[in-house]
Write a structure and sequence with these properties.
This protein is mainly alpha-helical. It is built from three helices and two strands, in the order ααββα. A hairpin with a 2-residue loop joins strand 1 and strand 2. Helix 1 packs antiparallel against helix 3. The longest helix has 22 residues. The protein is elongated, with a radius of gyration of 18 Å. The two termini are 20 Å apart.
């Protein structure tokens, strides 16, 4: 999985599912079984975020041999 796709799936999707939508949904007077729609949306975002992070984790380049991974773990960072 390319690094840009990992950033989009791992950071942008969870961020955009919570930050801009909750204030917009909070303005609505819609309730489901007495629970505000914004609260239901937040609870639905928890498994969505976990799914996004699992997708990034399993899409990581961990099947490559260590010689092909561009990182210096002894130094604590990437070149």
């Amino acid at each position: 999985m390319p690094p840009l796709a990992r950033y989009i799936i791992g950071i942008a999707v969870p961020f955009l599912s919570v930050i801009p939508t909750v204030p917009l949904l909070g303005r609505l007077d819609v309730t489901v079984l007495g629970v505000p729609l914004a609260l239901i949306w937040l609870f639905c975002c928890i498994p969505l975020t976990s799914l996004c992070l699992a997708t990034v984790w399993f899409g990581h380049d961990r099947r490559l041999p260590d010689e092909h991974i561009d990182a210096d773990y002894d130094r604590g960072g990437t070149p």
